[in-house]
UniProtKB/TrEMBL annotation:
<dbReference type="InterPro" id="IPR019734">
    <property type="entry name" value="TPR_rpt"/>
</dbReference>
<protein>
    <recommendedName>
        <fullName>DUF4037 domain-containing protein</fullName>
    </recommendedName>
</protein>
<dbReference type="Pfam" id="PF13424">
    <property type="entry name" value="TPR_12"/>
</dbReference>
<dbReference type="Pfam" id="PF13228">
    <property type="entry name" value="DUF4037"/>
</dbReference>
<keyword id="KW-0677">Repeat</keyword>
<feature type="compositionally biased region" description="Low complexity">
    <location>
        <begin position="26"/>
        <end position="37"/>
    </location>
</feature>
<feature type="region of interest" description="Disordered">
    <location>
        <begin position="16"/>
        <end position="44"/>
    </location>
</feature>
<feature type="compositionally biased region" description="Polar residues">
    <location>
        <begin position="342"/>
        <end position="353"/>
    </location>
</feature>
<keyword id="KW-0802">TPR repeat</keyword>
<dbReference type="InterPro" id="IPR025117">
    <property type="entry name" value="DUF4037"/>
</dbReference>
<feature type="region of interest" description="Disordered">
    <location>
        <begin position="339"/>
        <end position="367"/>
    </location>
</feature>
<dbReference type="InterPro" id="IPR011990">
    <property type="entry name" value="TPR-like_helical_dom_sf"/>
</dbReference>
<feature type="domain" description="DUF4037">
    <location>
        <begin position="538"/>
        <end position="640"/>
    </location>
</feature>
Length: 743
């Protein structure tokens, strides 16, 4: 079975299981949020909510117990959302949203799930959960991240998982199964993004937590699912013996506990079948997949990704069995390879370290690159990997071992990653980006106390790290662990290299050792994010500034303090977001719908050109604000604005996905519209066709925006001159602070 099919099978295994915290822990979201919601109700002297959360959960369990989820769960969840919202029960609504995310994910309804993810994050922010470390916030983050991962929105998923990690360190006990769920989900993300070594580590930790928390690990479904997850990851690393042991152990647990009628049994069956397929035991693979399909059909129906992926894998197993001359009867019993392992059968010993496959690839060719901290080294050729990937490898191979060796007592307190200014922090760097400020680098973030103790010496040790590396044909980066040859940082035979520009030196340096507060102050002017109750301070921060403070990746954050501070800047108050949406609506109307056509009629090409600029800026910003910065990030500065907009528009979950392309068309036609196209090959047609096209696009964008505002219940008006939509949007601003109101 090819790599793509293997990853598809991976996805199928986790449609439900211990990695999906929302299957079992939505009630925790309600319990963790109740105190906040009840306090709000008490303060407002409101009557008690009439939505019964426990009754809702019992009803949902009953639907799954009678195996009618495929037809009944969707309408049930949709009605529950309406009931909870009508009752004013925010905690109950958050519970329903968490459950809905899990169900929609299992049904492959990823586009619809975007609305649920956004509603959950916005609701949590409105309830004041996002600034704390509550179980409700941890559960919601995990569920939102898992929904993003299932839809292959990996960057957003990884960011949400890391936020969840930071919260979980403070909110959950060491043996809480939601920690195992988080490790399982992270392993899935690492597997789907070709990082199997990290996936294996996450899964072994998840299994340890699950076993430690279990009353009887030999009859625990979650323990079984963890074994299945680990078996599949080991399979991608060609550790077949270890993978077989864990897959067989998973089935043994189901049979020991007489749990074969559980919906999750399908995951264990399909997991064992996957291992059998890799071992060329095709008859056993066919048997396992057939049994798994029967369970999936009974519990979830056929119209799901779970069923389709498993059916496709069964087809491949049947074809392989036929080609190998192996027969399998219609009942699914292997004709010559024996049945699946039965309860009580002896399992092979599980090796501490699984053996690698026999067909290891030969060493690929490599591309060597040398750089120096001050730009004294010259790249032999353009580096074929992104700056973020290079930074992560530099940290893993050089930085982390150095800290462990020289600062063991601080290793559990130092955060590392790459965030801030620079193309690579946005993930948009390319070969052209390597002519300046390029090379292996990362940031180390310390508390004030730790910086006072070791900051200066740690900076010296960071600067002394070897920076010569090679990249093989598969994109793997390897650093050479030897010292530099001279004080300039050059390596033997290295040339003059990528220069470091003045804006990336001194107080503006982009890598090295920082106090956490100083790092964020250097970007935003604030040590920590403004208070949620200080909208005037939020409104003074440009979106591009917030983008620089929240982009990039965090490689390690043992205490969670850096991530918590970073999360503060991501958590723009919803009142501020709505106020900015109102401002953008005003500018779109003023520049695009009013002044642009008037300037063109006057023949004032310069005014029209500037009107287009303002219209494009406001509209692009609106797209990010509507999609919620906490989910998709902030719009970066002008250079990468459209790169980010294209990436966002290409997302399955994007709201207003066509606007970016429409804006680019407006800009392309602006020469002809404003100046008759002189010098651009469009002058022969004159300005009239371009003007007509631009005006049509502007009005179509306005129509699309109004539709989205209606869908989000931010307006009840169909007026397409967007200035008149502003009062409707501002009516949803809860604060009375006049700085948030423009009318």
């Amino acid at each position: 079975m090819d790599e793509e099919a293997l990853l598809k099978q991976f996805a199928a295994q986790f449609a439900h299981g211990p990695d999906d915290a929302d299957d079992t822990d939505a009630a925790a979201a309600a319990q963790g949020a109740d105190s906040t919601a009840n306090q709000v109700a008490d303060d407002a002297d409101q009557s008690p909510a009439t939505f019964d959360t426990q009754q809702f959960l019992n009803g949902l369990d009953a639907i799954f117990d009678r195996h009618t989820a495929a037809t009944e769960a969707g309408p049930y969840l949709e009605q529950a959302m309406v009931d909870a919202e009508n009752a004013g029960d925010e905690a109950g609504l958050l519970t329903v949203l968490n459950e809905t995310m899990g169900f929609y994910r299992s049904q492959g309804r990823h586009k619809e799930n975007q609305w649920i993810v956004q509603r959950a994050l916005e609701l949590a922010a409105r309830m004041g959960l996002t600034t704390g470390t509550s179980e409700a916030w941890a559960t919601t983050l995990i569920n939102c991240a898992t929904s993003m991962r299932a839809a292959k929105q990996y960057d957003q998923a990884e960011d949400l998982y890391h936020q969840a990690q930071s919260v979980c360190r403070h909110s959950l006990a060491p043996t809480d199964r939601r920690l195992a769920a988080l490790h399982n989900n992270l392993s899935m993300l690492y597997s789907e993004t070709n990082r199997p070594d990290k996936a294996e580590l996450e899964l072994r930790e998840a299994l340890r937590i699950i076993e430690a928390s279990s009353v009887n690990p030999d009859a625990d479904i979650d323990v079984s699912s963890s074994h299945t997850n680990l078996a599949l990851t080991l399979l991608t690393e060609h550790k077949l013996e270890d993978a077989h042991w864990h897959a067989a152990k998973a089935l043994e647990i189901y049979r020991t506990g007489h749990l074969e009628h559980s919906a999750h049994y399908a995951s264990a069956l399909a997991g064992f079948a996957q291992v059998c397929f890799a071992e060329r035991r095709y008859a056993d693979a066919v048997t396992g997949y057939r049994h798994a399909l029967a369970v999936i059909e009974e519990c979830y129906g056929k119209d799901t990704d779970y069923w389709r992926i498993t059916a496709d894998n069964l087809r491949q197993a049947e074809e392989a069995a036929a080609q190998a001359g192996v027969t399998v009867d219609n009942a699914g019993v292997a004709g010559d390879a024996g049945a699946l392992p039965q309860s009580g059968s002896r399992l092979p010993n599980s090796p501490a370290q699984g053996k690698t496959g026999a067909n290891a690839a030969s060493s690929p060719s490599t591309v060597s690159v040398s750089t120096g901290s001050a730009g004294a080294a010259e790249a032999v050729s353009a580096c074929p990997v992104s700056g973020l990937k290079l930074a992560r490898a530099f940290w893993t191979q050089m930085g982390k071992p150095m800290i462990a060796a020289k600062y063991p007592q601080y290793a559990g307190r130092i955060a590392a990653g790459l965030v801030g200014h620079g193309s690579e922090c946005y993930g948009f760097d390319d070969a052209y980006s390597q002519d300046h400020d390029f090379g292996p680098r990362f940031c180390l973030w310390l508390t004030d106390e730790d910086y006072a103790a070791i900051g200066e010496q740690l900076e010296v040790d960071y600067e002394a790290l070897p920076r010569k590396f090679s990249v093989d044909a598969q994109g793997r980066v390897t650093f050479e662990a030897h010292a530099r040859s001279d004080a300039s940082g050059a390596f033997p035979s290295a040339g003059a290299g990528s220069p470091v520009t003045p804006r990336a030196q001194g107080a503006n340096r982009r890598d090295g050792v920082f106090r956490i507060g100083d790092f964020f102050e250097s970007i935003t002017g604030y040590h920590t994010a403004p208070a949620q109750t200080a909208p005037h301070e939020w409104l003074m921060l440009q979106e591009s500034t917030l983008a620089a403070a929240t982009n990039g990746e965090v490689f390690a954050d043992p205490t969670g303090l850096f991530s918590k501070t970073r999360q503060g800047f991501k958590n723009m108050p919803d009142d501020v977001r709505l106020a900015l949406i109102s401002k953008r609506l005003g500018m779109i109307a003023q520049a695009g719908q009013y002044n642009l056509p008037r300037s063109l009629k006057r023949g004032d090409g310069a005014a029209a050109w500037l009107s287009i600029h303002e219209f494009v800026q406001a509209t692009a910003s609106l797209v990010f604000l509507v999609n919620v910065p906490m989910v998709v990030g902030y719009m970066p500065y002008y250079k990468w604005q459209f790169a980010a907009l294209r990436k966002l528009s290409g997302s399955m979950f994007a709201l207003l996905p066509n606007v970016g392309e429409q804006l680019e068309t407006v800009m392309r036609l602006s020469s002809a519209a404003c100046y008759g196209g002189a010098g651009f090959g469009e002058g022969g047609k004159g300005a009239a066709p371009a003007i007509e096209k631009i005006n049509d696009i502007v009005e179509q964008i306005a129509v699309d925006i109004v539709k989205e505002l209606k869908r989000e219940h931010l307006t009840t008006s169909g007026e397409t001159f967007l200035e008149w939509q502003r009062p409707y949007v501002e009516d949803h601003i809860a604060s009375d602070d006049p700085v948030l109101k423009s009318l």
